[in-house]
Design goal:
Layout (H helix, E strand, L loop, with lengths): L5 E7 L5 H12 L6 E7 L11 E5 L5 H9 L6 E4 L5 E2 L3 H7 L6 E4 L1 E6 L4 E6 L8 E8 L12 H6 L4 E4 L6 E5 L7 H5 L6 E2 L4 H11 L5
Parallel strand pairs: 1-2, 1-4, 2-3, 6-10, 7-11
Antiparallel strand pairs: 4-9, 5-11, 6-9, 7-8, 8-12
Helix pairs in contact: 1-6
C-alpha cells in the first residue's frame, strides 16, 4: 500500500488564519503515511513554506467549488483527500483511510470531534445523529473526471454524491473539526452545540492539536 501516492488538498487564503492553518499543515507533516503530498491553493493571503512534500499554488478569487476544481487540475496521483485549512487529522488518518478504500470510489468518516475556539469546548459528532450519510469534508476519493459544483457552500456534499462512497466507522478523534468564529457555516452547524454532546475533560488529541496551533511549523 505504501507505493500508492496520495494528494491532500487544502484551500486557504483568508487573512489571519496562519495559526489555524498550522494545525492542518503540522498534522499532515506528522502523518505516518509518507507517500503523500500536500497541495495548498491560496486565493488571497500568501503562504510561504518550504518542504519537499508541500506545493503552494495561487488561484484567482472564485467559489470554493471552483478552487477545488483548480486543485484537481494540478494533481496526477491516484488518490485525493480533502484537507481543510483549520482542521486536525490524527497521525494515522491517511494510512487508515487509504487501507479502507478497497474497491470503493470514495470514503468518508461517520464520526468526528469539534473544538470551538470561541467557547474552548469540545463536542462529539456522529453523522447518524442528524440522519446524515457521513461528513463530506473528510472525503478521500480516487482521481476521476468528476468535478465540484461552482458554489461556496455544500460543494463537497454535492461532489461526494457523484461517487459510490463508503462511510467509515472511524474513531471520532481521528478528525477534529474546528470552529474559529469565521467559518463558512455558523457555530451550531459546525459544533452541534445545541445537542447534549459535550466532552470533558479535553481529549488527548485536542490537547495535541492545540500545541500545533501554538507552535512554529517544522519544515
Amino acid at each position: 500500500m505504501n507505493n500508492i501516492q496520495v494528494t491532500a488538498v487544502m484551500i486557504t487564503g483568508l487573512s489571519g488564519r496562519e495559526k489555524h492553518r498550522n494545525i492542518a499543515i503540522q498534522s499532515f507533516l506528522n502523518q505516518t503515511y509518507q507517500n503523500a503530498e500536500l497541495l495548498i491553493i491560496t486565493d488571497g493571503e500568501p503562504v510561504s513554506i518550504n518542504h519537499p512534500r508541500i506545493r503552494v499554488l495561487t488561484a484567482p478569487k472564485v467559489s470554493l467549488g471552483a478552487l477545488r476544481n483548480f486543485a484537481l487540475g494540478h494533481i496526477n496521483t491516484p488518490y485525493i483527500v480533502q484537507w481543510d485549512d483549520d482542521d486536525y487529522s490524527r497521525a494515522d488518518r491517511i494510512e487508515w483511510q487509504l487501507s479502507q478504500m478497497g474497491d470503493n470510489e470514495a470514503t468518508m468518516f461517520r464520526r468526528q470531534l469539534c473544538y470551538d475556539f470561541v467557547t474552548k469546548q469540545t463536542t462529539y459528532k456522529d453523522a447518524r445523529q442528524r440522519n446524515w450519510g457521513g461528513f463530506a469534508g473528510t472525503i478521500m476519493h480516487k482521481y476521476s473526471d468528476k468535478r465540484y459544483p461552482d458554489k461556496s457552500k455544500s460543494e463537497d456534499s454535492d461532489f461526494i454524491c457523484q461517487f459510490q462512497c463508503k462511510v467509515l466507522n472511524n474513531d471520532a478523534n481521528m478528525y477534529i473539526r474546528t470552529y474559529i468564529g469565521a467559518n463558512t457555516w455558523d457555530q451550531n452547524h459546525v459544533t452541534w452545540s445545541d445537542a447534549d454532546n459535550l466532552i470533558e475533560p479535553q481529549p488527548e488529541e485536542v490537547t495535541k492539536m492545540l500545541r500545533y496551533y501554538n507552535e512554529t511549523i517544522l519544515v
